Amino acid sequence: MTVKRVSPLEAAALLEDEGYAYLDVRSIPEFDGGHAVGAYNIPLMHATPSGMRPNGDFISVVAAAFPKASKLVVGCRSGNRSLRAAEALLAAGYEHVVDQRAGHEGVRDAFGQLEEPGWHAAGLEVEHEAEPERSYEALLTRRDR
User: Fold this and answer.
1) Which residues form the domain of 57?
2) What average pLDDT score do residues 52-72 get?
3) What mean pLDDT comes out for the span 63-90?
4) Sign of the alpha-carbon torsion through 47, 50, 53, 57
5) Nearest alpha carbon to residue 74 among 11, 16, 118
6) What CATH number does residue 26 fall under?
7) Is 57 helix (H, G, I), strand (E, B) or coil?
8) Which end of the chain is least crowded, N or C, by CB within 10 Å?
9) How many helices (H) and strands (E) are present in the chain, helices listed first?
10) What does the alpha-carbon distance between residue 7 and residue 2 come to, in Å, rounded to a whole number?
11) How does residue 72 score in pLDDT terms, banded at 50, 70 and 90?
12) Where are the alpha helices (DSSP H) in 19-101?
C-alpha cells in the first residue's frame, strides 16, 4: 500500500475535520523544541552522542497508544523519517495513516532553499510543552504496564 502524502495545511484539516491524531516521530529534543499542538511523540530514531539510532520500540509503543483503526498524521522535521514511519505503520496493519510530507521545518533542495514550508512556516499553531500523557516517556510507560 502506498503512503498518502499531504501538505501541512491538508494535515491540519485532517486533524480538525476528520479526527486524525498527529504523531510526531522526531527525537525527544527535536519535539521539545516545538511541535504541532496536541501532538504525540514517538521517535522513529533516538538522538545519541554518536548520531541517530533506530528506536526498536517504535511499533510496540505506537500499538500501545493507538488501536489499528486510528487515523494518524505522521510528521517529522522534513518528511523523510515520517515517510519511513508511515510505511512501517502500514506494514504493521494500520490503514488510516498519512505522511505530512513537509515536516515541521519544511522540505529543502540540495542548495538549502525552501521548497515547501513545514508546519511552523505554514503558520500553523505550535507548542513547546507536550501534554504529559503525549510525551514519549508517558507513552513508553503505557506500553510497559
Assistant:
1) 4-45+53-140
2) 98
3) 97
4) negative
5) 11
6) 3.40.250.10
7) coil
8) C
9) 5, 11
10) 16
11) very high
12) 28-32, 58-65, 80-91
- Please name the amino acid found at residue 130: A
Q: Tell me if 145 is assigned to some domain.
A: no
For residues 78-113, one letter each, b for 16 or more C-beta atoms within 10 angstroms of the residue's C-beta and e for the rest, the string is bbebbbbbbbbbbeeebebbbbbbbbbbbbeeeeee
* Per-residue pLDDT reduced to its tens digit, 84-130: 999 999 999 999 999 999 999 999 999 999 999 999 999 999 999 88
Q: Which residues are known catalytic residues?
A: 76
pLDDT of residue 35: 97
Residue 138's Cα: distance from chain center in Å?
16
Within a domain: residue 21?
yes
Query: Residue 83's pLDDT is what?
Result: 97
Quick one: pLDDT at residue 145? 79
SS3 category, 85:
helix
Contact 121, 100 (CB under 8 A): no
Q: What is the mean pLDDT of residues 51-69?
A: 97
Sign of the Cα pseudo-torsion (4, 10, 14, 20, in order):
positive
Q: Please check whether residue 104 is in contact with residue 120, taking contact to mean a CB–CB distance below 8 angstroms.
A: yes
